[in-house]
Amino acid sequence: MTRLDDLGYPIVVADDATPELASFIRERAYKRVVVLADQKVARRAHGIARALRAQAEVLVFPLGERRKTLRTLERVLEALAEVKADRTTLLAGVGGGVATDLFGFAAATYMRGVPFVAVATSLVAMVDAAVGGKTGVDLRAGKNLAGIFKDPVAVFCDIGALRTLSEPHLREGLSELVKHGIIEGDETFDSLEVLAAHSLRKWPWESVIADSLRVKAMVVADDRLERGAREVLNLGHTFGHAIESVSNYRVSHGSAVAMGLRASGLLALRTGRFSASEHMRVLALLALLRLPLVTPFDDVDALLAAMSVDKKTRGGALRFVLPRALGDVEYGVTVPSRTLRAVLGRIRETPGAAEFR
Ligand code: GLY
């Protein structure tokens, strides 16, 4: 078990998170727990509820990116009112990134805020979504456009759950690991290059997740409300969110972020920030991890329109997060629209010599 305390609440990375959660609930003397679960992990959620000594009940909701909506939020809030949850009730949100974002938002708004623990069961949730206090839902116009910053009282990364994920689902979370690798550089990036040669089933997940979380925690601790420096954690996401949205969420978050990391590297290269050799290293790592690098559609204008609702936009100007080097990422960068269009056109093609022209 590894425990990080850098953000003022425990982040526990454990092979089996249930006993850790149970002892946390005992220590804090919560009398009642409502477990909110994505239907996909309902069995795990019932197991967690049985293991808790506190009175625990389970409310299950079918989720998925297309259901990360105000409508689902309303259902969760109504269900909480129906079971008469109150301000002393601890809500435990079990699932992947959609679940921790949406249940976290429900906890932040129900009765103007009740305590929330995230029990992350996907790699995306463990290394990114569950940690850092961002909660929210998508609007028709774009991803995560309604939400609130609200820290959980604890986060539990349930590594055992990763063994139940299919390989493509597990692979989903690798883009966020690469993102943290680019932000931190050095050993964090190098170690991913080494691990990439090994089967995912053999990765030392506890240390991989804890190391990646340390990068995230360090950034968040300096800028919890994303007034500035936290924007670096959006590396690849301005492109990624637009790709997800334009594909109507047929392209998954992890795949879209991989394409977005390629696009950010390319934009950085073409605006004279990033070296060709480092861009090549990032592409090679993404490819070794079998993450997709090519967008499946041609509509550059649709991507630009989807990007225009990015939360980092100021006064109508898109602002990008771009690498200057591995370990050195810049935020708030504006770029010539001609270069941006050229990059959006290029990522429809497989990387090759033209990438570096
Ligand atoms: N997922 C980016 C952040 O937490 O800031």
Verbal overview:
The protein is 46% helix and 18% strand. The chain has 357 residues and is α/β, with parallel strands linked by helices. The protein has two domains: 2-164, Rossmann fold; 183-356, Dehydroquinate synthase-like - alpha domain (Dehydroquinate synthase-like, alpha domain, Up-down Bundle). The chain has a seven-stranded mixed beta sheet, sandwiched between helices. Strands 7-8 form a two-stranded antiparallel sheet. A two-stranded antiparallel sheet has the order 10-11. Strand 10 (320-325) and strand 11 (328-333) form a beta hairpin. The longest helix is centred in the middle third of the chain and has 18 residues, at 205-222. It starts with a strand and ends in an 11-residue tail after the last helix. 49% of the residues are buried. Bound molecules: glycine (GLY). Glycine (GLY) is lined by residues 128, 132, 134, 230, 233-234.
